[in-house]
What does this fold into?
Amino acid sequence: MSTVTTHDGVDIFYKDWGPKNGQPIVFHHGWPLSADDWDNQMLYFVDKGYRVIAHDRRGHGRSSQVSEGHDMDHYAADAAAVVAHLGVRNAVHIGHSTGGGEATRYVAQYGNRDRVAKLVLIGAVPPIMVKTAANPGGLPIEVLDGFRQQLAANRAQFYLDIASGPFYSYNRPGAKPSQGVIENWWRQSMMGAAKAAYDGIKAFSETDFTEDLKSISVPALVVHGDDDQIVPIADSAPLSAKLLRNSTLKVYEKFPHGMCTTHADIVNPLLLQFIKG
It folds into this structure.
C-alpha cells in the first residue's frame, strides 16, 4: 500500500492516480469514511487528465488505528504530510462534511507558497456545528452526545441506520435506497477504529473554523443540499460563504448530505466547471 509516515509515527494511506504533471485535485473524506467515498469523483477526473489524490484520515480506512490525534489540527497536518510527500503544488482541495473542515484548516494553515489553487466545500461542517452562545443555530450538544452513546453501544447498527436513513435522505417519502450504496458506506465506516470515530464527533462538531475561513483568499466554491440532514444548511454553507473572501455559494434543492454519490451526475460537472473556470 502507498503510505506516508507522519512526524508522530502515523501511517497515512493515500491514492495517487493520473499523470504526475496533471492539475492535482486533493480530496478530503467525511466521517467516518475513507478515501473510497470519492471513487466516483476520482474516476471522473482521472478520465479527464487530472491527477487525483485522496487519503484515509488517521484512524480511518487503511491508515494507522492510533489512539491519539483525532482533532482538526492533526487531520490538517496529516493531509499536509501527504501533499508534501507527493510534492503537490497548485492543487484544488475538495472536502466533504468533516473533510470540509479538514480542507479548510489545511488551506488556512498550509496553503501558502503556491500549494493551493482553489477550495471546494461540499456539505461541509464549517463554520461550527455545535450550538453555543455565539452559534445559537447549531446542533445541541445533547444530539452529539447521543451519537457518541449509539456508537459506543453498537456502532455497526448505528452506521447502518445512518447510511440507510439521513445520510442519503433515504428516509424521505419516495426515496429509492441503493443497497450497494448503504453497504459501501457501512463497509468503509467499519474499516476504521471505533476510537477514531468516537473522538471524531467532537472534532467535526466543536471545532470553530471562523478564523480559518476568514484567512482564506483563494477562490472557493461552497456547495450544499437544502435537505442535508447531517449538516443542516442554515448553520453552515451560507455562513461559510460569507466568511470566505472569494466564494461562490451553490445550493441544490432536496439534495442530501451524500450528494456526491446520489447526484454525482450533477456534482461532477459543477466541480469541473469551477476547476476550469
